[in-house]
Design brief:
By secondary structure, the chain is an alpha+beta fold. It is built from 15 helices and 13 strands. Strand 1 and strand 2 form a beta hairpin. Helix 10 packs antiparallel against helix 11 and helix 10 packs across helix 12. The longest helix has about 35 residues.
């Protein structure tokens, strides 16, 4: 398609060329640069800006300040140079330092191609302009990891293939009906899986109480998760317990506990049971079906079957993706700085939650897995960042980019999932600065799709995995909350797409 300039017979390039020729070439600074490794993905730079550049910038800045300086007894621009220099020494020095540092950083990026992934760690206040000699400063820069491109065109993966059975649909129906069930007192027998327990919890280590929670209600499932850990054998420990009795179990503390001394530790937890309740499922009749928008039980079951088909497709896609990335990471070991991982933990949690929501998982399932992810956020984020850098390098090799059409299609898909207008979704993305993260997610998906063009895929028939039922609490096992990390986006290399499907 021709441009308007081309149709008029005036190449669009001519005006830009003339403008470029009219502008003088920017003079480069005289820099002496020493670059050393300062750890994984980190470079330490010692930079010296030549004295002649400092003096030239000083003259330029002094002239600029002199034009606007308000000096009693003189019109603007007419005050003696020495008087302006003395009166506005601090302002001139600040302008000189700011301009030189900005120019030096731009030149370093252009000349040395450091590929920074965050803002340089530079203490500007500590930098002073010497009376003689060069202006010197030092800084640390986080850079992209260096590694050899793996053989991504020679992979073999197994794709799990499974069908949705009637038994799967019946189990999903029971889970669905529990949303409309009544919680009633359990007056006979002990606690069974699915019952609700009200109890006091006391966490202790070597006889010392670490944390306690009073009269909290939870559902008895094989596993109980907290925001910083879990009780892996809850059902075994509490099966048959009655009101008034107490039981003990083991709790494992995750890596996100605010108490560093307890991370990875095993605690004892005492359950003092006060009350038991159980669920009474609704009667599935025409009145109930009409209240939830279905004409028949068969129609409801078909809707639930569709949910399971979507979930299995998501699980299949994730299984293939994991195999691809596992093989690539095994071929490409590299380290990342701990502070970079820490800054990205919150983004990782949100990205993984969004992926689960896209896969059709229920709110309870997402909540349970979210607690597990949060409890081990450091490990999840480490892997997520490595995946990002690895797939980004493959995308560069393949010439993959995110086009405007890709972003438009993604926004439309989000609007469709969330039942919102495209305009509203786009406005939220702009308001919350989520565009970069969304683009990263799109590029990752395009890269996986490109790799799949070369991968040998073997279909393997499997049964639906038996998912362990989990109960999740908003409490922490150790007290004191979780490790807080800065807002995502500071490091920005893998800012996760945070398009919300809530």
């Amino acid at each position: 398609m021709s441009t308007p300039e081309e149709e008029l017979g005036a190449p669009a390039q001519d005006e830009a060329t003339a403008t470029a020729e009219a502008e003088p070439e920017k003079k480069k600074l005289g820099l002496e640069v020493e670059i050393t490794d300062a750890g994984p993905c980190k470079k330490h730079l010692k930079v010296a800006i030549a004295r002649e550049d400092v003096d030239r910038q000083f003259e330029d800045s002094l002239g600029s300040v002199r034009k606007e300086a308000a000096v009693p007894g003189f019109r603007p621009g007419r005050a003696p140079r020495t008087l302006v220099q003395k009166r506005f020494k601090k302002e001139v020095a600040g302008q000189v330092k700011s301009n030189l540092l900005m120019a030096a950083l731009e030149q370093l990026d252009e000349d040395y191609k450091l590929n920074p992934i965050s803002q340089p760690q530079l203490d500007v206040e500590a930098i002073t302009i010497p009376d003689e000699g060069p202006l010197q400063f030092e800084m640390d820069v986080e850079v992209q990891p260096e590694f050899k491109l793996p053989a991504y065109k020679a992979l073999t993966v197994q794709r799990p293939v499974r069908e949705v059975t009637d038994a799967d649909v019946e189990a999903q129906l029971k889970s669905f009906l529990e949303r409309y069930a009544q919680l009633v007192p359990k007056l006979e027998g002990g606690a069974e899986q699915g019952d609700y327990v009200t109890a006091d919890l006391v966490f202790h280590k070597d006889g010392v109480t670490v944390n306690s929670v009073k009269e909290i209600q939870f559902r008895l499932q094989p596993e109980l998760r907290f925001q910083d850990g879990h009780v892996p054998d809850l059902l075994k420990s509490l099966a048959g317990v009655k009101a008034g009795e107490s039981r003990e179990a083991e709790a494992q503390v995750g890596s996100s506990s605010a108490d560093a001394a307890l991370r990875g530790q095993t605690l004892r937890v005492t359950f003092q049971v006060h009350d038991l309740k159980t669920l009474r499922l609704p009667t599935v009749d025409s009145v109930f079906l009409d209240s939830i928008g279905f004409d028949s039980l068969d129609e409801l079951k078909q809707a639930l079957r569709d949910v399971l088909i979507r979930r299995y497709a998501f699980q299949q896609k994730q299984a293939v993706r994991k195999q691809i990335v596992d093989q690539l990471l095994a071929e490409t070991p590299f380290d990342l700085p701990a502070d970079l991982v820490g800054r990205q933990e919150r983004s990782t949690i949100r990205r993984l939650v969004n992926e689960m929501r896209e896969g059709g998982l229920s709110d309870d399932q997402i909540r349970a897995r979210q607690a597990e992810i949060r409890a081990n956020a450091h490990e999840s984020t480490m892997r997520s960042l490595k995946e990002f850098f690895l797939l980004a390098k493959i995308a560069e090799e393949e010439g993959l980019k995110v086009e405007d059409a890709d972003m438009d299609a993604e926004i439309e898909a989000i609007a469709d999932r969330t039942d919102e207008t495209v305009r509203r979704v786009r406005a939220r993305i702009e308001k919350e600065n989520l565009a970069e993260g969304l683009a990263s997610q799109i590029l990752e998906r395009k890269t996986i799709d490109r790799i799949l063009e070369f991968v040998k895929v073997e279909d393997v028939t499997t049964q639906a995995p038996e998912e362990k039922a989990v109960e999740t609490l908003d409490e922490t096992a150790t007290g004191g909350g979780l490790v807080e990390s800065p807002e995502e986006g500071e490091a920005a290399p893998a800012a996760a797409a945070e398009e919300s499907a809530e």
